[in-house]
Amino acid sequence: MAYGDSGAVRSGRGDRGSGRSGQSARRTGPVAALRALARSWCAGIVVLALVLYFRGLYLHEPLVDQTELGALPWRMLVLYLPTAAASALITLIAARLHPEPFRSSPVQHLIAAMAVPLGAYAVNFAYLWEEAVAEGILCASLAVAVGCFVAIVVDVSMERRDQGPQ
Asked: What is the pLDDT along the chain (166 residues), one digit of tens a residue?
C-alpha cells in the first residue's frame, strides 16, 4: 500500500492510469473534461485517417475505379458497409478512451465518442454537396448512424462486463 492509499481494492477502468493517489480528485474540473474530450477526439481522428487511407488503398481504387457502381447492392457493399464499419470502429475507440469520471455523464460521453465520425460525415457532405443525390445522403446517413449506434451499444456492454455483477 502506498502512502495516502485508503486500502480499498480497486478494480475496473476507474483508476486506470492514475498512478498517484489524489490524482482523481484533480481530474474533475472543466480543463480536465476538455482534455478527456480532446484525447478521445485525437484517437478518433488518427483512426479516421488510417481507415480512410486503407479504404482508399484496398477498396476504392481496386473496386470503384475499375467497375461501375450501377446496382444498389454493389454500392451498399463497396460504399456504405465500409462506412458503417469505419464509423463503428472510430466511435468505439474514442468511447473506450474517454476516461472516468467523465464517462458517467451520458452527454459528455456521447460527444466524446461520436464527434469525430459525425464531424467527418458533415465535412464530407459539405465538400461533396453539389454531387450529392438523395440515395447517397440517405444511405450514408444511415451507415454512419448505424455504425455509431452499434459502437455505443458495444461500449456500454463492455463497460458493464468490466464492472462485473452488481
From this structure: 343 444 444 444 444 444 444 444 456 788 998 998 899 999 999 999 998 888 877 776 666 655 566 677 777 777 788 889 999 999 999 999 988 888 888 999 999 999 999 999 999 888 888 888 888 889 889 999 999 999 999 999 998 888 877 6
Nearest CA among 79, 85, 76, 12 for reference residue 47:
85
Residues with Cβ within 8 Å of 155's Cβ and at least 6 positions away in sequence, in order, are 91, 92, 95, 96, 113
Does the pTM exceed 0.70? yes
CA distance 117 to 26: 30
Q: How far is residue 153 CA from its own chain's centroid?
A: 12
